[in-house]
Input
Amino acid sequence: MLNPAIIEFLELRKSERLKKKITASMTDEEQAIETQLIQESYQPAVWIADAAKRAGQLSLVSHPPKFSHPNAKINHILAQADFNADGYLRSGNLQSKEDVIGNAAALDVFKFLTLALQDEKTLLQHLDENTEEVKQQFSFPNQNYEELRAGFLSIKTDKDPSLRTHGSIKQVYFPIAENDYHLLSILTPSGLIFELKNRIRDMRFSEQTKAAKEAKKKNLEHETGFSDIYGLTTIGFGGTKPQNISVLNSQNGGTSYLLPCLPPTLAANHQRLPKTDFFINCINPGI
Output
């Protein structure tokens, strides 16, 4: 029996399709034919088989190249870094969402693969681990499970294994020895920048923060208080089409935060020498 999350997903997609395709200007016969076609295309076995074929149009990534430039084209990068208590904010040391790039028309496949089953693992995780649960979910007459699995897992494979960079990617010469350098192509870890955005948003606009700010206005004590970050600015990616950069970028409206990293401005400490009396000219009696 199909998991309720899968059934609900397909029913919602079918309902949206029917609303879009069935119009008042169509005859009853045209409406009936179109409805029948849509009903058939969203039968679980039919839709899942088609989705497995379309999964290859997407790539699961950790560092989408188009954050550097919309025309940047490089290898599929899916960093698998391990955790290390080294004190660095980097891939592997922070749990963040993986991103997706590719044909925007196939993004429904990615949404399908992120559906959580009863054990809270996603369909993609189940396919990756080749569990009995996912075998039961994708057991259809006249469908080969291994072919379906391979099709969906193609979202994690590099479509072009030849290693290369692109002229639109930021380049940095990093010294490694005397007169010797590595040329690095700097990519954006989209999962990290949007995890930063979520944490800042929670810090500034959560219900607890709102309650603490309201208590401050009324000069009342609050159990936890609140924190804030000043000097923030917003950076945008993709203009009016954030979906062309990546899925996470689209989900976040194409914007994230930039933290201030300017050196501190220090006020000059001028020593005022006394003219008549040290205690009168140099000491603030209010201290």
